[in-house]
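Notes, Module 5: Reading structure tokens.

Key idea: the token line is not a picture. It is a compressed description, and you learn to read it the same way you learned to read a sequence, by spotting repeated patterns. We will look at two proteins. The first is printed below with its tokens.
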Amino acid sequence: MLDVRDLAYGFGERRVGAGVTFALERGDTLAVLGGNGAGKTTLMRTLLGLLPAQSGAIRVGGDAITTLASHERARRLAYVPQQHTPTFGFTAEEAVLMGRVAHLPTFARPGVVDREAAQDALTRLGIEALAARPVTELSGGERQLVWIARALAQQAPVLILDEPTASLDFGNRARVLAEIDRLRSVGLTIVFSTHEPDQALAHADRALLLADGRPLALDAVERALTAENVERLYRVPVRSIDAGGNRRVFISG
């Protein structure tokens, strides 16, 4: 579904990262980890075709991303940005319905199927009570759930999420991670970035560790996320602790 070969990325001539290669099939989930400024967001924007690759290749569903029109990219890839502050007071339901634009002919209005998809996405994330509220009046965490619901309503086979739980409380974080697991189980291909190794261990198949824009490790999540690699990634002493049930957690110090 998503094939990346020897990718170099950045802004204009300024290089942010290089040497990224991976291939994801249906149902695969890749967690991308790295410190602040490691290039995670730039990588994701390049995967989406929002930034041109400096070199290398990206293929989605067998087609080069550079050959796809914007509406076709939107049918194949859904995106949840790390932060997005709205400037217009659309209701939450209207914002989620925007995820259906890629499926509509030019100038067409959303139909029954589109509204059902939007309602289902709101319900899955437990935010149907926000449907009539302007997104400009929601908290940062509530808005993040709306953007995730919009991506779900888009019904693209590849979902890219940039730190999707960063601004969420414990309950909403658990709800989003459970939805990621559900989407994995029904065959979506998912790439998400996170600062939390424990989150990657629990909710991803593979992990890409970025240090200064280059892969420090890219492997099955259990092999990539060792205490040594996490310590090198974040430059703090780290210990790995057996939490039982084949689970590990990392603590600093």
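Here is the second protein, with the sequence above and the tokens below, as before.
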Amino acid sequence: MARSLKKGPFIDSHLREKVEGMNARNEKKVIKTWSRRSTILPDMIGHTIAVHNGRKFIPVYVTEQMIGHKLGEFAPTRTFKGHAVKAALERAAGVAGAPGAPGAPAAGAAPAGTGAPVAPKG
């Protein structure tokens, strides 16, 4: 559910003060914050805000398209490492298709399905 329009967008007061102070001094330093719940306002455009993801700070450069979104949306907290089933299938296919692996055709062997016997050389 969206926040009430009469209340306006939420931003933590300590973060708002830091951004307003930097705008007043016309400086661009990285602002560290744990406030993932704060909404991005037009005053933040051009600043880099380091948002904590639970382990480290992720630098987020604020652009015009980010206005209205939350800071936490741009600092993911989970690392996706792929689907386990897909990885297992790829490993199984890689082992069967590898040269010299069990089940793989030996080097110099006749292609399967030709029906012609191969005489050994020598």
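Summary for the second protein:
- The beta strands are 31-33, 48-52, 57-61.
- The mean pLDDT is 85.
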